[in-house]
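User: Quick sanity check before I run a bigger batch. Here is a single chain. Can you write out its predicted 3D structure?
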Amino acid sequence: MMKKLYLLISVFMIITIHNSLAQVPTISQIVNQINQDSLALYIRQLSGDTSCVIGGSPYTILSRHKNQPGNDKAAQYIFEKFQSWGLSAVYETFSTTGKNVIGIKPGSFDSQKYVVVCAHYDDMPSGTIAPGADDNASGTATVLELARVLSKYNFGYAIRFICFDEEEQGLVGSRYYATQARNRNDSIIAVVNLDMTGYDANNDGRLDVHSKNIANTVQIANDWISNVTEYGISLIPRTVASQPYSDHESFLQKNYGAILVIEYDLEFNPYYHTVNDKFQYLNMSYVRKIAQVTAATIAEYAQVLTSNVATVYTTSGWNLISVPINPQNPSVLSIFPTAVSQAYTYYNGYVVKDQLEVGRGYWLKFNSNSSHNITGNPVSQVQINLSSGWNLIGGLNSIIPTGSIITNPPNII
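Assistant: Done. Predicted structure follows.
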């Protein structure tokens, strides 16, 4: 049913409506497709535990340190993986020694807005042998596995799978990316950074989620933690005050919402930054669980598209209605073929609309009581630019508490 929430707002503002969703079937499928064997293979190949094929030839990555040849080879390995899954793969070169590797999944609604899942691929120590299995082949492998799985789905917003270089020298690659993003005024919906997600020697499932009151960071952290329960993943996360030692910090400094997901600080990997940071010491079930929760969170923020049908009921006469899901065909004639009037919304006066937009309210007239099945994709959040004066605002496909509406300026409702 449709007539859930209609507000008349008499100020200029932007309004964001959140719809708290229960477990989404498609996201459950995504979570289940995260494969532990795939994750293990990526980590083994990135850490030199086994060889891989790069540029058509066998190669063993012995070190990913910025000054070692394995660093460039690791970047090429990641680039070729992104390409193999149909993503648009690009290098972002920021110095003579450094380059980030980016895989892009475009959005169906808006490719200018995007979600970031990231990890750094460089490692320590500086010698010719530096496996870096936990720090940070584990995070890089998770980005790769999410790219593999999520590449098979469509999303409302774009996803950028980013592997940063030279994190170990002071977040160099991510600082460059975040600075360029802010200079372009990129619209980044959320950032989830993965750094050291493989060490859990006592198998207790504990981990840390770093959060800070910048942009929507707290909400991202809360959503990540909620998905642990939502999708039945046996982890014990705790929220901690964000520390500036990983790539999420670069985004926070540019006022983007960003969290760090990292293994439990009170059970720190004793092989950190040594030649013994090897695959054999990792807990691969733990790696997979973190990847599963991250996959669910990224899919939610990018708004994974599923085919759904919503039913809207109308009565004889004029009806104030909205479209509760993103329709496959937004035209009035397609959604409400029995309407006997044009669709009117209010934007500095009543205006006629031929295409209906999620989140707005419309007046339509019908000659009899009827129901209308709308095929489309569910939406959990919508942002609407409103004019000064009165506006008609429609709800999503469930009851929307007014407390979940965020306005800019704040606290108008």
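Residues 171 and 388 are 43 Å apart (CA to CA).

User: Great, the batch can go ahead then.
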